[in-house]
Amino acid sequence: MPAEKKGGRSSRTDCEFPNMFNLGPQEILLILLAALLIFGPSKLVDLAKSLGKAGREFRKSFEGKEEDESDKSQPLPPSPPQAG
């Protein structure tokens, strides 16, 4: 039986930065090699660039929503009465 670590994690996640999908370096290397064979080197570079841009845009939109929510929490000043 594998030794249990603090928090109930198994010995599979002994690395300093455990990842979400529980993939080891061999699995990641195999996935990258398969992607290289499927897409080719030039398409792989373009794919990585587009994924990076999409990640940045997602992060910017997420940070923008947090700023909008903090602005909404402050009450708006009363509007001046309209003459008429």
Description:
- With 84 residues, the protein is mainly α.
- The protein has a domain at 40-71.
- The protein is 57% helix and 0% strand.
- It contains 2 helices and no strands.
- It has helices at residues 25-39, 41-73.
- Helix 1 (25-39) crosses helix 2.
Record keyword descriptors for this entry:
57% helix, elongated, 84 residues, mainly alpha
Topology at a glance:
Layout: H1 25-39, H2 41-73
Helix pairs in contact: 1-2
User: What's the total number of strands?
Assistant: 0
List SSEs in N-to-C order.
HH
Instruction: Give the biggest sheet.
Output: none
Question: How large is the count of helical segments?
Answer: 2
**What's the overall average pLDDT, rounded?**
75
User: Which regions are unreliable across 5 or more consecutive residues at pLDDT < 50?
Assistant: none
- State the helicity in percent bands: 55-70%
Tell the overall outline.
elongated
Rg for CA atoms: 24 Å
Structural class: mainly alpha
Task: Please state roughly what percent of the residues sit in beta strands, choosing from under 5%, 5-15%, 15-25%, 25-35%, 35-45% or over 45%.
Answer: under 5%
Distance between the termini: 82 Å
Compact summary:
The chain contains 2 helices and no strands.
